[in-house]
C-alpha cells in the first residue's frame, strides 16, 4: 500500500472535479478515514501530507490520538453514543453525525468551547441509515439554538451504496439544496456553509455537487480488516 501515491491520486482527482465544476480545491477538506487501519497507517497518511483524520468509534479515536495527537485534526464521523461524548469532545475538530436532541444536549454539556457539528441527514430515506429526514432538519436546528456550545457548520450525508451516477448526484444535490435553505434562515448558531459528503467511490461527484468535506477511507489508506 503506497499511501503517498494514493494521496497524490486523490489530490489530482479533486483538482479535476473542481475544475469541471468551476470550484477551487482549497474549498475542499480531505478527511482520511482511518477506521479500518492501524495507527501506523494513519501516521503514514499524516507523513504524506494528510491533515484531517476521521474515526467512527471513540476507542479508535482515543488509541490513535494517543500516538498522533494534535499533529492531525480529528473528525468524529460515526454514530455517537451520548455516553461516549465526554471521551471525544476535547479531541475533535468536528462531529459529522449530529442526529438527535439528546446528543446535542450532551455535546453542549460536555464541551468547554464551541464545537463544530454537521447535522446528519438521511437523504435517500434508507431504513439502515442514520440521520434526520430532510423535513426534520430545520426544526431540529432551530431547537438546538440554546445549546450554545454547538455551531452547525453544515450538513452531512452518506449516499446509497450504488454505482449509478444519477442516484448519487441527486442525493448530493438534495443535500446542497437543503443546506441553502438552512443558510437562508440566517441562524446565528448555524451558518451551515459546509457539506460533508463523498467517500471513496463517489467523492468526485460529491465535489462537483458542492462538497466541502470529503471522507475518504479505502482509496487513501486501504483496509486492514479484510
Ligand atoms: C467508513 C466511512 C467513510 C469512508 O468510507 P470509504 O468507502 O472507505 O471511503 C466515510 N464516511 C463514513 C461516515 C464512514 O463510516
Radius of gyration: 17 Å
Poorly predicted ranges: none
Number of domains: 1
Order of helices and strands: HEHEHEHEHEHEHEHEH
Task: Please state the second-level CATH architecture.
Answer: Alpha-Beta Barrel
What is the CATH domain class? Alpha Beta
Pfam families: Ala_racemase_N (PF01168)
Family: Belongs to the pyridoxal phosphate-binding protein YggS/PROSC family.
Organism: Pontibacillus chungwhensis
Function: Pyridoxal 5'-phosphate (PLP)-binding protein, which is involved in PLP homeostasis.
Give a brief outline of the structure:
Keywords: Pyridoxal phosphate. By secondary structure, the protein is an alpha/beta fold.
Spell out the key features of this protein.
226 residues; alpha/beta; TIM Barrel; eight-stranded parallel sheet; 9 helices; 41% helix; 18% strand; binds pyridoxal-5'-phosphate
Describe the structure.
The protein has 226 residues and is α/β, with parallel strands linked by helices. The protein has a single domain (3-221), classed as Alpha-Beta Barrel (TIM Barrel), CATH 3.20.20. It has 9 helices and 8 strands. It has helices spanning 3-20, 39-47, 58-68, 85-88, 101-110, 134-143, 165-185, 203-208, 218-221; strands spanning 29-33, 52-55, 73-76, 92-98, 115-120, 150-156, 194-196, 213-216. An 8-stranded parallel β-sheet has the order 7-6-5-4-3-2-1-8. It is globular, with a radius of gyration of 17 Å. Residues 33, 35, 56, 77-78, 158, 199-200, 215-219 line the site of pyridoxal-5'-phosphate (PLP). Residues 27-222 form the Alanine racemase N-terminal domain. Pyridoxal 5'-phosphate (PLP)-binding protein, which is involved in PLP homeostasis. InterPro entries: Ala_racemase_N (IPR001608), PLP-binding_barrel (IPR029066), PyrdxlP_homeostasis (IPR011078). Keywords: Pyridoxal phosphate. This is Pyridoxal phosphate homeostasis protein.
Amino acid at each position: 500500500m503506497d499511501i503517498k501515491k494514493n494521496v497524490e491520486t486523490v489530490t489530482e482527482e479533486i483538482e479535476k472535479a473542481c475544475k469541471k465544476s468551476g470550484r477551487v480545491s482549497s474549498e475542499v477538506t480531505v478527511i482520511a478515514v482511518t477506521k479500518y487501519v492501524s495507527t501506523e497507517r494513519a501516521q503514514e497518511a499524516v507523513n504524506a501530507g494528510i491533515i484531517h483524520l476521521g474515526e467512527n468509534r471513540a476507542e479508535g479515536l482515543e488509541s490513535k490520538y494517543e500516538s498522533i495527537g494534535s499533529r492531525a485534526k480529528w473528525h468524529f464521523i460515526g454514530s455517537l453514543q451520548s455516553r461516549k461524548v465526554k471521551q471525544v469532545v476535547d479531541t475533535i475538530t468536528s462531529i459529522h453525525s449530529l442526529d438527535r436532541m439528546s446528543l446535542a444536549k450532551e455535546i453542549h454539556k460536555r464541551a468547554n468551547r464551541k464545537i463544530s457539528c454537521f447535522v446528519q441527514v438521511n437523504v435517500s430515506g434508507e431504513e439502515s441509515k442514520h440521520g434526520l429526514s430532510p423535513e426534520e432538519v430545520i426544526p431540529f436546528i432551530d431547537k438546538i439554538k440554546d445549546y450554545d456550545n454547538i455551531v452547525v457548520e453544515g450538513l452531512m450525508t452518506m449516499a446509497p451504496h450504488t454505482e449509478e451516477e444519477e442516484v448519487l448526484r441527486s442525493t448530493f444535490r438534495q443535500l446542497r439544496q437543503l443546506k441553502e435553505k438552512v443558510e437562508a434562515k440566517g441562524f446565528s448558531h448555524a451558518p451551515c456553509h459546509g457539506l460533508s459528503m463523498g467517500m471513496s467511490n463517489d467523492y468526485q461527484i460529491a465535489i462537483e455537487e458542492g462538497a466541502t468535506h470529503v471522507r475518504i477511507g479505502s482509496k487513501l489508506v486501504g483496509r486492514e480488516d479484510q
